[in-house]
């Protein structure tokens, strides 16, 4: 019998624990979760171990065969030895968005966190595929490429799968149809300038623009772009059910070598970078995912209006990348 893949999840907050839980329920990989302890007075809690134990009992109650373990680590990077030989490392660790906080506000603090984590991944799991969830995700994926020194096909940001799911949700509600029959991509930066590709979106093969009036479609696009903020304003913290499901969708494509085409934030350069007008940073485009990570970057057609929106989105990401490059300083691997 083939050895089961190992997926390590760094960060057991809302997104991380839901990623781990869904992976355990799916049962196609062994799961390891890592997070820091929490101190209250003289008592030190190890919530990641408690969550892992709770999940073990959950899958036992569901008659599922799966292996899941939790490990406490320090902010300085001690305790990461069990990440050894992981096939996939999902990084959700970082400060979450709060009401009134932009993704860019998170940048400097989360670069520090990623620097510590990635140094340990390089040490113990140098052949792993990295999935970056930490926000602002396009910038943090670029940071991960630079800090890890990994080939670009092994560093993937989770963004477009989530944005596309939100877009499909609102379309499904509008048309009262199943999301299964909706084919819609959202590309570009994971922020207010993201680009829903209306020209190639369809429902059951019927062009979306023929089903929803343009004015109403613009309202749905606006809600999609600010979908994360809508949830933050309602809950007081970032979404986690849908982001976790989006990550698991990506992990499943990698583990099963299904070669699914999913919109992800990836490093663009060379021929694909030239097509998209991006040279040397990460932004969301459709890619083919398989065992080796990104197997192909899909050159999706865009009409003139979409190309203009795309260029604005790319420019927004580019400006943040320039800020990140200054913050990175000498942290990049030699």
What portion of residues belong to β-strands? Answer: 15-25%
- The average pLDDT score comes to 93
> What characterizes the major β-sheet?
6 strands, parallel
**Number of self-contained structural domains:** 2
Description of the molecule:
By secondary structure, the protein is of the alpha/beta class. The protein has ten helices and 16 strands. The longest helix is centred in the last third of the chain and has 25 residues, at 304-328. The chain folds into two domains: 5-157, NAD(P)-binding Rossmann-like Domain (Rossmann fold, 3-Layer(aba) Sandwich); 160-324, L-2-Hydroxyisocaproate Dehydrogenase, Chain A, domain 2 (Alpha-Beta Complex), CATH 3.90.110. α3 (107-124) links the parallel β6 (88-91) and β7 (129-132). The relative contact order is 0.13. The chain has helices spanning 14-26, 47-61, 107-124, 137-148, 160-175, 214-225, 227-235, 241-256, 270-276, 304-328; strands at 5-10, 29-35, 38-40, 43-45, 68-72, 88-91, 129-132, 155-157, 182-183, 186-187, 195-196, 202-203, 206-207, 260-268, 281-290, 293-297.
Structure at a glance:
By secondary structure, the protein is of the alpha/beta class. It is built from ten helices and 16 strands.
């Amino acid at each position: 019998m083939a050895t089961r893949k190992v997926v390590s999840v760094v960060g057991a907050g809302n997104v991380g624990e839901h990623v781990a839980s869904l992976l355990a329920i799916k049962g196609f990989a062994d799961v390891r979760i890592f997070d820091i302890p929490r101190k209250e007075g003289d008592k030190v809690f190890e919530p990641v171990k408690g969550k892992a134990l709770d999940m073990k009992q959950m899958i036992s109650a569901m008659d599922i065969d799966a292996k899941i373990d939790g490990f406490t680590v320090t902010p300085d990077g001690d305790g990461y030895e069990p990440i050894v030989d992981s096939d996939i490392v999902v990084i959700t660790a970082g400060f979450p968005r709060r009401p009134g906080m932009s993704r860019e506000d998170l940048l400097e603090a989360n670069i520090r966190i990623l620097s510590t984590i990635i140094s340990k991944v390089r040490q113990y799991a140098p052949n792993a595929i990295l999935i970056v969830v930490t926000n602002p995700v396009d910038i943090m994926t670029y940071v991960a490429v630079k800090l890890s020194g990994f080939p670009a096909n092994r560093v993937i940001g989770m963004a477009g799968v989530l944005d596309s799911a939100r877009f499909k949700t609102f379309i499904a509600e509008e048309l009262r149809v199943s999301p299964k029959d909706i084919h819609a991509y959202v590309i570009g930066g994971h922020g207010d300038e993201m680009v829903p590709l209306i020209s190639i979106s369809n429902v059951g093969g019927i062009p979306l623009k023929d089903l929803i009036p343009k004015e109403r479609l613009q309202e749905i696009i606006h809600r999609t772009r600010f979908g994360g903020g809508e949830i933050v304003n309602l809950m007081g913290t970032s979404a986690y059910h849908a982001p976790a499901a989006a990550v698991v969708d990506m992990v499943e494509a990698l583990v099963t070598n299904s070669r699914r085409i999913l919109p992800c934030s990836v490093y663009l350069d060379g021929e694909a970078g030239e097509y998209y007008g991006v040279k040397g940073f990460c932004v969301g485009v459709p890619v083919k995912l398989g065992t080796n990570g990104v197997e192909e970057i899909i050159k999706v057609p865009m009409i003139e209006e979409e190309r203009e929106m795309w260029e604005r989105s790319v420019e927004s990401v580019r400006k943040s990348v320039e800020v990140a490059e200054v913050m990175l300083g000498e942290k990049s691997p030699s």
